[in-house]
Amino acid sequence: MRLATVTTHYGSTAALWQGGWRRLPEPDLSAFLREHAIADAPDLASDELVDAQPVVLLPTPGKVICCGLNYGDHIEETGREKPTYPTLFAKYADTLIGPDEPIELPAGVEADWEAELAVVVGTALRRATRAQAAAGIAGYAVANDISVRDWQRRTLQWFQGKAWDATTPLGPVLVTPDELDPEAGVEVVCRVNGVERQRGNTKTLVFDSAALLAYISTFTVLRPGDVVLTGTPGGVGMAMTPPTYLADGDVVETEIAGIGILANTVRFAA
Amino acid sequence: MRLATVTTHYGSTAALWQGGWRRLPEPDLSAFLREHAIADAPDLASDELVDAQPVVLLPTPGKVICCGLNYGDHIEETGREKPTYPTLFAKYADTLIGPDEPIELPAGVEADWEAELAVVVGTALRRATRAQAAAGIAGYAVANDISVRDWQRRTLQWFQGKAWDATTPLGPVLVTPDELDPEAGVEVVCRVNGVERQRGNTKTLVFDSAALLAYISTFTVLRPGDVVLTGTPGGVGMAMTPPTYLADGDVVETEIAGIGILANTVRFAA
């Protein structure tokens, strides 16, 4: 199944793809995942929506937890060793934007791209085993953990480089695990102004989706609609020679085969 | 003014202290700060509550952002230099507990104390000046950023040692800035089983409350009821010789003169 939050002439709604977008109860996919079992979506789908366009997939996740240093080639380009434990940091829902919304930043910051597979939680998980965590995955989406490198480097903690409002594209749809198997491998790609900058395969992840959810659930509950970003492959701008950052008007395309494409334009405020 | 979330025989409510606790509209202080201006509290207070006890001060803040390395003596004990920028990390509302609730942890982790002044946001702040940030402070509370040091040290990012559910006491009340001036200096104290372990004064903070709110608002909006923890003074357990951590049954008292005392017992799960 493919689900999304879409806008129509009548406002936004959760929706299920069945040749066209069909209306689900609840105004967005965050609310739908909190209120319903995802398996019930086909029974709950009603009228087909005209001119529906996906917007930010999950507007109100309680938690957006990110894993850094999770692809072998990206670990290498940062000069670090393969980790024993996942490196985790948090961001807030205010960071999230839709699949074609602008990435809004002040002029002059060192903004970099990080294409990622996002895993969306479907059932509450606390001290979950790997099997429970795997069964608790609602599905997968595309994300780009746009990072403000100069702020990320200001201190030991990355948070202030990662938590800028309206900088993290998420979407365009959620694809359920029966249709997509990141453990078998899907390609995660980032292009900037049409030039490919990143290409990784999720089968090379050090910690896969189920491993990350189980690990996180050791210390905090994960709830339906929470999001975990699984890390980025090699090819980020700060590792280029010379380091290269996003400029006003640049178009960042983030693609995962089997899910879709995000296309977001960088907008620097004056 | 002193405000809190209290429980009575009839459930929980936001409340204002006027010789006794008087009922405010909204079921808790998070909801009250979202829905009302704090200056209106005296006009909105109604019947006096019998047997009211403060519980977790803010049950649903959207953001709980913490500053590390903000007291000179704590910076020294961690072997670091006085910072140019605040070191920030995030936790979630699930970490918060009330002024006398247990700190719940699995047996065997290295749990440490961090007494802190908490600043609570009263008005929405985005790209705020220092003056706007100061005017946007709803008030102050006591917090203890109980930290799981072995998990904090597993990776470069502290989040996984700081975000354990039900480990961060917050309260007992919110005191408005007209009654408490941390810039002039208030004492922040931590005792474990009655033995004083930390004592710092907020006048020695590298970044004070207004500075932290203004800085954070550069990259993300702060909303009424959001919480910023301003860092801990010297005297944490990991800096003792030998390093000393909390044991099952230990009582952690966290006190700020002019606000109150939190008294939380450590409970290790079997």
From TrEMBL, chains A, B:
For this UniProt entry, the molecular function terms from Gene Ontology, in alphabetical order, are: isomerase activity
Q: Fumarylacetoacetase-like C-terminal domain location, by residue? A: 63-267
Assigned keywords, A-Z:
Isomerase, Metal-binding
* A Pfam family annotated for this UniProt entry: FAA_hydrolase
Q: Which family does it belong to?
A: Belongs to the FAH family.
Q: What is the name attached to this protein's record?
A: 2-hydroxyhepta-2,4-diene-1,7-dioate isomerase
Record organism: Nocardioides aromaticivorans
